[in-house]
Amino acid sequence: MNIILLSGGSGKRLWPLSNSIRSKQFVRLLNHNGKYESMLQRVYRQILKIDPSANVVVATGQSQVNIIRNQLGKDIPICIEPSRRDTFPAIALASLYLRDKLNINETETVIVCPVDPYVDDSYFEGLYEISKIVNNNSLYLMGIEPSYPSEKFGYIIPATDEKVSEVLTFKEKPTKEKAKEYIKEGALWNSGVFAFKLNYIINRINRKYGYIQYSELLSGYDGLEKISFDYAVVEYEQRIKVMRYCGFWQDIGTWDSMTKVIPTNTIGSAILDESSTNSYIINNLNVPVIGVGCEDTVIVASQDGILVSNIESSETIKQYVENVEISPMIIEMEWGTQIILDNSKKCQTKKITINSDKCVSDYITDYYEESWTVLEGAGEIQMNNTSKKIGQGDVFKISKETKFSLFAQSVMTVISIGVWC
Fold first, then answer.
1. What is the dihedral of CA 44, 88, 86, 246, to 10 degrees?
2. How many whole angstroms separate alpha carbon 125 and alpha carbon 54?
3. How many CB atoms lie within 10 A of CB 126?
């Protein structure tokens, strides 16, 4: 399979664990063999389980590149959008990336998929099946058999109840009563999956922009019209088919839905008393959080903030987060993570973790002076054309505009104190 994973989002619906850099798909709360993984990691793992030779490209903005490489490794192909121009330009750029950078033949099938569906493996078996039946002049979608009359999703009305059917029409997000009517007609949830031959989308790109190479579209990307794939392609396509998927499918874009799939009621240093019912505490801080007599409550604590909410009402937090000025305090880098412990007008204190065999390359401080103290681990620092082994208890200082690199031979934890100019 050739799969484009669309990765975006503003990071407001799973606040305070998500932020402007770490959108919901990067939050590690899903259990896999006793370890926590993110939606991105889960989807990528499931794809490779079904098709180990799949070509997977993540389409995203520059702000997410570090965290994607942190979670999936440095070799994952990433098609970087210079700015947000909606789904058609993003899919167009990623499709040209497949052709011009990864040398994928135009006769091969491409599947565009959201990065965050919570599904079982049969979903990706369905994608694999779609990849084998797509023909040159048609667009295929995947429709989800509804489990309830949702007002959150668009609907696809198929012409028949066969597994693969022509699409009769589309319906926008309806009221609950309308959704009931659609379901009686055999409607499916629109999952946001598109499948087509690469030459199919190349033809649509040529119609929209003229014959163009990846590098040309990239250079002119900021000037492109913002337009969705639905409005640019689907609306005008006469030959659309939909494959019915009846397996498990869960949208986990809110704390309400997330609490339905996390493995336990408490994560981190957290206690819920016996009188608490249907309540959850997710704590990323190093101080305990205790819930007493909680009912239908979700409590989430991180360096970015603290949320206390009724579970159902948690869907509305986006409007409140938009009105709060928030600077991300946890940042995942390609080489590890950094947590801002204190931020003032005069200095900033960070706890930095560098993963084993990773390198902080060509670091240049913005501070007048920055002091790093190694709490644990060992590595080698290169600065001023010299190399030096460092380990627990060692301290080194970096003056402004001094470049250095630090290679971690084992997991290193460092406290950095930077004094502002």
1. -50
2. 12
3. 21
Cα(173)–Cα(185) distance, integer angstroms: 16
Q: Is the dihedral of CA 162, 167, 173, 176 positive or negative?
A: negative
Beta bridge partners of 208: none
DSSP string for 135-201: -TT-EEEEEEPPSS--SSS-EEEESSSSSEEEEEEEE-S--HHHHHHHHHTT-EEEEEEEEEEHHHH
DSSP for 49-105? HH-TT-EEEEEEEGGGHHHHHHHH-TTS-EEEESS---HHHHHHHHHHHHHHTS---
Helix 39-50, helix 121-133: angle, nearest 10: 50
Spatial CB neighbours of 89, under 8 Å, sequence gap ≥ 6: 81, 221, 224, 225, 226, 227
385 confidence band (pLDDT: 50, 70, 90): confident
The CA distance from 265 to 311, in Å, is 13
Residue 342 has pLDDT above 70, yes or no: yes
Query: pLDDT per residue over 112-138, tens digit each?
Result: 999 988 999 999 999 999 999 998 778
Please report, for residues 130, 188, 371, the alpha-carbon distance to residue 109 in angstroms, rounded to integers and kept in the order given: 9, 23, 52
